Amino acid sequence: MQQEYVEKYFRSGYRRFMMRNSNRKDPSQQQIIEERLRVIQFFEEYGADATRKAFNTSRSTVFLWKQKLKKANGKIAALAPGDRTPIRKRRRNVHPFIEDFIIKYRTDHPGSDKTTITPMLVIGCRATSIKPVSESTVGRIIHDLKSRGRLPNSNKVSINARTGDLVVKQRPKPRKKERRKGFRPKVPGDIVQMDTVSVFACGIKRYLFTAIDVSTRFAFACAYGSNSSINGSDFLRKFVTVAPFNVARIQTDNGGEFERYFEKTCRDVGLAHFYNYPKHPQSNGCLERFNRTIQEQFVYWHIDYLDDTLEFNRKLMEYLIWYNTEKAHRGIGNLPPLRYYVDKFLVPSQKSNMLWTLTACSH
């Protein structure tokens, strides 16, 4: 049997290749790809019988994976599982009375959801001796009617100020947002949580963009005059610049400051962007605690500088240097974030006290 080693597909070695490509958007697919590569490597070392007993994977399956790798010139994306959606899907059989009732009710009462429609539908079905359907089924029927264009759309009507013409705009379809799901960070930069805090005092309102790395608790913040996506993009680039590690994933809420230009910067820099579920601040638990800390220890004590954003940010940088190099954190063994990063994640040849200590500079 001819032996082929998986390392030959990668010029700089399999381990280095996986470390460079560890910032894939879908953690579940990455785990499947890594598992299949392990099976291929095990197969080449111990043979088909041992592979079948250890991984319950047949010889033909391993050969199929190796063929995919070869055709893709060693690109590991070829090992990602394909789409298993059936070509022909079953259509839901709905009684015409139920379908007509939902269409009429939604037409008379736009925006009514399944919870509102179901009680009235049950009464109508019993009056006509038809078996009523559950609330979840009503929701599925509404979804099917929307996809077929049977329900009225909620359009926005406005007047063009220049021409005086009526302008009808359809509500854009909500795009699918990437969620963190079960992904857990292992190294610095795996998950960086970002948020904004609005500060209002003496008739002045400022927005404090904040960020924290979940693995090391390394934090950063900056104040802006507005919470626009342009400022969000600028803050993201600043964090990527000051962070002592490579950033792979960003996690934010669904605010407008993390859309458009912020999303474009994520694509330009090559970052995966995870969104929290609506009304679920627990997803950003580490950052929510940092937001409280920075307000209690810095913002409330420097309100007088709020009108001058440059001076406020200069004071803020001094606080962040103290926070990252001196302040002990219980969650990381009572160590400052940068000391924890140096001790745990850097090899001895990369360690330097100049990375985390504050050194005076003379010009």
Description:
There is one protein chain. The protein has 363 residues and is of the alpha/beta class. The protein has three domains: 6-79, no CATH class; 96-157 and 165-170, Arc Repressor Mutant, subunit A, CATH 1.10.10; 192-355, Ribonuclease H-like superfamily/Ribonuclease H (Nucleotidyltransferase, domain 5, 2-Layer Sandwich). Helix content is 41%, strand content 12%. It has twelve helices and seven strands. The protein has helices spanning 14-20, 27-46, 48-55, 59-71, 96-108, 114-127, 135-147, 229-242, 261-269, 285-297, 309-325, 337-345, and strands at 155-159, 166-170, 192-201, 204-213, 219-224, 249-252, 272-275. The strands form two sheets. It has a five-stranded mixed β-sheet, sandwiched between helices. It has a two-stranded antiparallel sheet with strand order 1-2. Helix 2 (27-46) packs across helix 4 (59-71). The longest helix is centred in the N-terminal third of the chain and has 20 residues, at 27-46. The protein is flat and about 75 Å long. The termini are far apart. The relative contact order is 0.07. The model is unreliable at 1-11 and 358-363 (pLDDT under 50).
